[in-house]
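As noted in the main text, all predictions were made from sequence alone. Below is one such record, for Cytochrome P450 CYP6N4v3.
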Amino acid sequence: MLRKDPESPYEPLTDEELVHNINLIFLAGHDTTASTLSCALYNLARNRDIQDKLRNDIYQKMGLSDSHKKLVVPTSEQVKNMEYLHLVIKETMRMFPPILHLGRQLSEDYPIPEDNIVIPKGTTIALSIYSILHDPKIYPNPEKFDPERFLNAKYDVDTYMPFGGGSRMCVGIKFTLMEQKVFFALLLQKFDLRIAKDNPDYEQLRVSGFGLSRPTDLKISFEARF
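Prediction:
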């Protein structure tokens, strides 16, 4: 479109720039989604009651019986109606945000009156997403995996931002959520997830990384249902 508009003030992207942007989208979408899926697997294996409730909700939304023995791919409409699955993913991303902090550059001077400080325009700052999502004043008992905390409570966009916020929010938000929901709608039909009490991750999932987080050597048992 830019190439066809001679009056456009914007320069079109070169082929090389397009390739770099496409590569960035694939890379950014792979590690973050893989990390969230791994953390969700842990949460479900560690909390069997929530796993069972989620499986029952998936079966209900897909019209499946407990005795079915064939893997069924959900439709997009069925996935959209899996509200409890959405809560499970949302709570997982609160507990284990794939991006730990956001970097931003100030577009204008920012005063902090109580400290008599002015951060000058152009300063690069880092916002800790993890600290916000684990603030007990916002999320009571933040270390507890509780998907239903989002059921009736309303949180400001400034207090829930695993995908970032504002005009630079992650462009892949809808894609990754659909990807994760289809993954679990299929996985929980086929497998029960378990984690042994002697597993080093049983009490607390070990997470490593700076900037991008990921579980460390996570071991979970997958027991076939059929």
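The chain has seven helices and eight strands. The mean pLDDT is 88. These features were considered when defining construct boundaries for the mutagenesis experiments described in Section 2.9.
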